[in-house]
Amino acid sequence: MRLLLITATLSIILQGFLVRSDTEQYNYADNGPDNLDEDENAESNSTVVEEPDLTGSDSEKDVEIVANTTVQTVLENTSQAEKKNDATLGPNECEEPPSIDNAVITSKIQLSYEVGAKVSYKCEFGYITDGAVPSSHCIKPETTQAPYWTKPELSCVPRSCGDPGFVDNAKRVGSVFTFPNKVSYECDEGYKLKGYGSRYCHASGRWSGVLPTCERVYCDPPSHPDNGRVIYSSLVFESELRYECNPGYILRNFLGRSCIGNGTWSGEEPVCQDTQCAQPAAPEFGFAQVVGGKTSVGTRVIYTCEPGRILKGSPTSKCLDTGDWTFPTPKCLYPCSVPNVNHGKMFKHTGYRNHYREILIGSKVEEKDDLILRCDDKYEVAGKSNKEEKIFCSGGEWSSIPECHPAQCRRPPPPTANANIGSVNQTHGGGVVYLCKTYFYKVKFGNVLCDFGTWKGETPVCKDFRCSRDNLPFQGLVQPRKRFYQNDEKFNPSCQSGYYLTKENSTLFCMNGTWQGHLPPCTPENCNEDTLQSLC
């Protein structure tokens, strides 16, 4: 308890000096609050320790003297109180007075407190009271209970400085506006702070300093590169620069520059170099000759190829003021010779829509050029059904050399009655094999051949050599049990009642699809001169 009293006393005396030493933002020369949340009645009832005036030249020395004197007095009183505390309290004495957060005892510290004694409190520097009884009394109840202190109703809360305000184009950090807190301001990207970035809530209820401002970031005017100039329309944040070089110079190492948040230009300043084209590379299997030996603007290079090769591309190129050559390096390629294809001709596209011209055998064709082979009438590309084939030159050789063969017969061969197609050879000169169906026999052999894509010839004839019972429409004949009889097959006829066999032991047999034997086989029993002609 005594150590707390010493600390509290020192806090009252040294509060202003210590706080001011912590930051130059604190200014205690103004002791009166100018932005308090409490009303006048609350202010008049509160007990606030006035801030010491530290504005004089000897302020720190004065504080030191006051502090030393107070500490000495407190220590002496504390020493006496400790001696007194060693003895047992009397029946009419209270223990040490109660302590209150953020408050100090203003009464003189005594060696002992008898019944009826009173101590007064007031809030520490920077705190105000919202209570009505800033004191405590030592009382003794009528019972035998020991004396005790009444409970003080004092409550000390930090003094409020109110809302410190916002700053345009900035965010505010901190939301507690009471002593001894602070708020800070951070400018948005592209803005810079002018003034102090933090404000402190003083014990007097005032904010330190004034609101800062956030000003737009500007970059300094950029310098012009040698042999060129810089172009811009603004120097404000995020503005961009553009560079141009004088004629005969080319811009190098330019990746873009803009004004950034710290007020500087991003990247490095580009340079304008004297324009020269890179030394041209000779084509493979060829040569590159620079006219004049230098690769400055306007210089020409001439390309040639080794004997036997064809130059593919522009034979000359010129150095431009951009440092580039007008044309890429050409290629030296072997030419291809137009081949001789029997029954076909080679054609090359003229560049006009669907227009081709014939290329003579042995003509030279450049690398990657293509030709169209067209086969003669009644001929087609070997292995394919089309009459045309595209080929192209690569490395002095053709991608392929197709042939023109007689056209194949792509359509099915002609059919014939009572026969199936056994096999087909669709190539020129190939034929068709026909197979008669079951029970049918060839009575005429055909010959169907493929002639330049068309089937020509006669098909075979297949005939049924069986004999049908339907071909025995004779009166009195008992129809045979079987419907068909094979070639050379026989059967013995029998007659119905009222008929007799015209010839004993008569036999009918099938020969090449026709019934042979004595016909009609049956004769009516009443056959006479009158009926013989019609029935017999």
Note down, in words, how this protein is organized:
There is one protein chain. The protein has 536 residues and is mostly beta strands. The protein is built from four helices and 44 strands. The protein has a five-stranded antiparallel sheet, with no helix packed on it. Helix 1 (2-22) runs antiparallel to helix 3. The longest helix is centred in the first third of the chain and has 28 residues, at 59-86. The N and C termini lie far apart (165 Å). Residues 92-158, 159-216, 217-274, 275-334, 407-464, 465-524 form the Sushi domain. InterPro entries: Sushi/SCR/CCP_sf, Sushi_SCR_CCP_dom. Keywords: Disulfide bond, Glycoprotein, Repeat, Signal, Sushi. Residues 29-59, 79-99 are annotated as: Disordered.
